[in-house]
Design brief:
single chain; about 230 residues; alpha/beta; TIM Barrel; eight-stranded parallel beta sheet; two-stranded antiparallel sheet; about 35% helix
Amino acid sequence: MKRAKIEICCGNINDIVNIQGLDYDRIELNSALELGGLTPSINTLKEAKKLTDKPIMCMVRTKTGDFTYTQAEKEVMYEDARLLLENGADGIVFGFLDDQKRIDVEALKIMREITRGKELVFHKAFDLIEDKIEALKILIENDVDRVLLMNESGEELFDAAKRIGEYMDMFEGKIQLLPGGGVNEGNILKILSLAKTGQVHGTFKETLSHDGLEHIEVSRQRVKDVIEILSKED
């Protein structure tokens, strides 16, 4: 049996240095993970490409808070996506909602055209949508490759994973689903069993302190441990 894929959520270049040489499968590259993940700089992407040959999916998000954007903010994100793709991104991670917390279909269509030929991933904004079945149908109709589901409506983690498994039964082969949020060494096997996705997303972070200031980084040891756990399940 093929090992489940592991996507590592990275917030800076040091995170990628930390996991060099490990057998993970894909990176989601952000800035400011402490703020939920924002658009990384072009130079961070360029340096990341020097350090790994793994696929790099780049977050496109201009602000913290909600996922409803003004037209000016959308134009910035469209151009960010173009520039990231021109500089080596293998795909774009995004999420546009309207005032009713439904998918902003017009913005989705524009982003799909910008990223045509590369992967397009709808991120944790999905968790705020009430009618998730209808949302998945819209994403499938617009050729979105994957959806990151962090924790559906605040459900208990394993209940959320079970619901992802139900979506997989409904839509398998039409769109990829990627469970994340709270995934760790102790629960990853059960989450994968319930969600039936064959892939998982995590930061596997540790909190470090320097001069009294704290920051988070991806832990090399934790990533190694997760890879070992999954490899034993092959």
